[in-house]
Amino acid sequence: SLCSDVLALPIFKQEESSLPPENENKILPFQYVLCAATSPAVKLHDETLTYLNQGQSYEIRMLDNRKIGELPEINGKLVKSIFRVVFHDRRLQYTEHQQLEGWRWNRPGDRILDIDIPMSVGIIDPRANPTQLNTVEFLWDPSKKTSVFIQVHCISTEFTMRKHGGEKGVPFRVQIDTFKENENGEYTEHLHSASCQIKVFKPKGADRKQKTDREKMEKRTPHEKEKYQPSYETTILTECSPWPEITYVNNAPSPGFNSSHSSFSIGEGNGSPNHQPEPPPPIADNLLPTSTPQEAQQWLHRNRFSTFSRLFRNFSGADLLKLTREDVIQICGPADGIRLFNALKGRMVRPRLTIYVCQESQQLRDLQQKHEDGDTVTSTFFVYHAIYLEELTAVELTEKLAQLFSISSQQISQIYKQGPTGIHVLISDEMIQNFQDESCFVLDTMKAETNDSYHIILK
Question: For bias kind Basic and acidic residues, which ranges apply (predicted)?
Fold first, then answer.
């Protein structure tokens, strides 16, 4: 079998190199190995890419990798693994719900991911939720041989923007999250997550793509070849962060966004564009004409219209979208009616106030730079960041500034505005309500008396 020499050393090397440096010596509790060869056309430090044929069964070996004495609480117990096929591309992740709905509409009755149960070994109670086409789960005993065969039915080119043939397909990820039981016997305690990048082709297409990649590599000079990884016979899934539990929530922070940095050094120029954590674009939660009455009910709950869910319980997405503004106001009253109508039409609301801010330390550094270069100061280019305010309160401004500096809002103790003769005026809600739209401020920061917090002054 392809997996027989899974323990060949180069594969472990490949896995190590793609982990962050602090994990270099960390042995993960489990290892998952997909029995399909990696592409030879992958640069040395890039993540591996594996080609699969649509609908073909591929083995994933579930290996217990624990050191002696590690995680003794799962000895003799089952664990639960959830498999997902998700988008690799950030842009598609933000519209995943709509992408999958569109797929369901075009391929009625089909699933994105299936387990080939007759071929699999050691899996217990496999389940596939009919509403989650891209997810399957099962229980398994880490002490016994476990192999699960999966089939992926969606093709990478089904999600490309233009559909004129010959375009590159989008990469997907196969992600596995494994959980142990909590004290109530529910499998909710996260143990380990790993994933790998795949592309899916029409039957036999993966073999053709592998062959053309190989031929392309053979034409390269030996010097060029050194920049590429060899093709490994199997694909080791590398550690990743767990899949966020609640999907499609309007204000869920993106899984990678960490707001609890303990220190923020102004001198290091958080104001420069490359240090700035981009807030994730809002995840559109538009109701689709293809939504079933049950999905329309879920959408009403998610968007705070639960009070009207009984009234609309037999309405599909298409029924709700056909309602006119007058219909909705008549059913729900003026306040909720207008809100529901706007939500149905997916209206983007303009912020009530926009202000632009720039860090003083950034400005000073730019000025010094210009002096050293002997240039005129007038040509200095300052980086400003836009802050959009909806509620026009001091609390909201504090939160937005904390996000800008990647610190928690507790670390900002007071915000002042520099007044006449250089006095510091404490910012109040009323003052913010009287800011002119598109005002510009330079931010100065002062260490507060307490050790870890700051005062911010708007000049």
Answer: 204-228
Please check whether residues 170 and 219 belong to one and the same domain.
Answer: yes
The whole-model pTM stands at 0.51
Tokens of 299: 């959408």
241: alpha, beta or left, given left = phi > 0 and alpha = psi -120 to 50? beta
Q: Contact 73/180 with Cβ under 8 angstroms?
A: yes
The verdict on residue 188 lying in a domain is yes
Contact 103, 85 (CB under 8 A): no
* d(C-alpha 102, C-alpha 154), whole Å: 12
Based on the domain organization, do 363 and 447 belong to the same domain? Answer: yes
- Whether 6 maps to a domain, the answer reads no
How many domains are there within the chain? Answer: 3
Distance (Å, whole) CA 89 – CA 103: 17
Domain range for 180: 30-239
Alpha-carbon span 403 to 400, nearest angstrom: 5
CATH at 155: 2.60.40
- Could you tell me if 92 and 159 are in contact, meaning their C-beta atoms sit under 8 angstroms apart? yes
Distance CA 358, CA 347 (A): 30
